[in-house]
Amino acid sequence: MVTKCHAPRHWILPTNRGKSLYTMNPLTIWTNQHFGSESADLLQKYAAPHRILFASGASKSNLVGGGRDPATAEADILYGQPHVQDILESARVKWVQLTSAGYTRYDQPATFDALRAKNIVFCNASSLYDEPCAQHVVAMLLSLARAIPQTAIDQPNAKWDYLPIRSKSFLLDGQKTLIVGYGAIARRVVELLSPYKLDITAFRRSVRGDENCPTLPIDQIDSHLTQAQIVINILPASASTTRFFDAERINKIKPGAIYINIGRGDTNDQNALVAALKEGRLAKVFVDVTSPEPLPPDHPLWTTPNAHITPHTAGGTVDEAKRMIEHFIANLKRYEKGEKLVDRLV
Asked: From CA 213, how far away is CA 128, in angstroms rounded?
């Protein structure tokens, strides 16, 4: 399938040193994302003349939910990982901008209903992470196809396993691939994999018709698993996706297949993955997410042959803090102008 090229996304910071044309009064922006002094200065510079209110309990990780903070009552915009109750109890907040693509702790019907009732705009940061996550998936898949993890294991022992490694390497051409959970990351994965000519089918809850590969409702997936040579799990965490890939569904995957998960650890049964590897029903497993995180040192997934783990680093980049701020500032400028915000969920 031919797909359009997609250059890496860059959010252009304003060049007017924080001065922008807007008619609203300066706002107070609360954040509990710890950026470091240089990035914090950048945020203040380009958000000016709005006031930045830094939470005392700021975290470097956007995977960590924030605690209660009375300072949120002073803010018009909450940026980072605010506590759900702080959002809902605020009489002032107008917009919540997460620093993460995931929003599990907020994903409750009652919470979203309350946000709508209070006219609070709610955005995640999925467009910030689609490119690095998609590239991570491709790196995982290519490394497995070319048997690179095994050579990395062999190198400290000065082991030259020439013929076995060559015989385990394969091409991606024509591989029947299922992408489970179609969104911004999956769209980019399809684009990046296009040159390798895989046979890709995606599955999502509601098919819209604008997907860039054949896409089916997720309730039809079971009949396709028996032919899948590669399964890429990009499901978000929710009540409907918990243990979606349970032992029964994992056992339906075609023997000898590869299973990749960069969605959420709760969406698969890790013990079932271990069993499938030990019994030879799955050839390789590569996960960037686990449950819990970090995975306990004694969990068998660490030491099961052909299981490979990266520590929830798929969305990371060397300039992540800068990109995070660029993403927010670009949305802030849209907000000032009354334009549609990127990554809006409510």
From this structure: 22
Q: Are strands 282-287 and 257-261 parallel, antiparallel or unpaired?
A: parallel
340: left (phi over 0), alpha (psi -120 to 50) or beta: beta
What beta strand segments (E) does 153-250 contain? 176-180, 199-204, 215-217, 230-233
Consecutive H or E run containing 214 = none
CA distance 323 to 12: 10
Q: Which residues contact 158 (CB under 8 A, 6 or more apart)?
A: none
Report cis status (omega within 30 of 0) of the bond before 236.
no
Q: Cα–Cα distance between 17 and 173 in angstroms, integer?
A: 49
Q: What is the CA radius of gyration of the chain?
A: 22
**How many angstroms separate the CA atoms of 93 and 338, rounded?**
16
Helix (H, G, I), strand (E, B) or coil at 96: strand
Tell me if 81 sits within 8 A of 59, measured CB to CB: yes
- Asked if residue 297 has a cis previous peptide bond (ω within 30° of 0), the answer is no
CA 155 to chain centre: 31
- Give the pLDDT confidence score for residue 23 in this predicted structure: 53
Joined tokens for residue 142: 């290519």
Distance (Å, whole) CA 333 – CA 14: 9
Cis peptide upstream of residue 292 (ω within 30 degrees of 0)? yes
| Cβ neighbour number for residue 130 with a 10 Å cutoff | 21
- C-alpha 211/C-alpha 218 separation (Å) is 14
pTM value? 0.89
Question: 69 — alpha (psi -120 to 50), left (phi > 0) or beta?
Answer: beta
Query: Closest Cα to residue 139, out of 289, 267, 341, 314?
Result: 314
Separation between Cα atoms, residue 262 and residue 217, nearest integer Å: 20
Q: Where are the alpha helices (DSSP H) in the chain?
A: 37-47, 84-89, 109-117, 126-145, 148-154, 162-168, 184-193, 222-225, 247-250, 270-278, 320-337
Distance in Å from the first CA to the final CA of the chain: 33
In the chain, which stretches have pLDDT less than 50? 1-22
In contact, 328 and 79? CB cutoff 8 Å:
yes
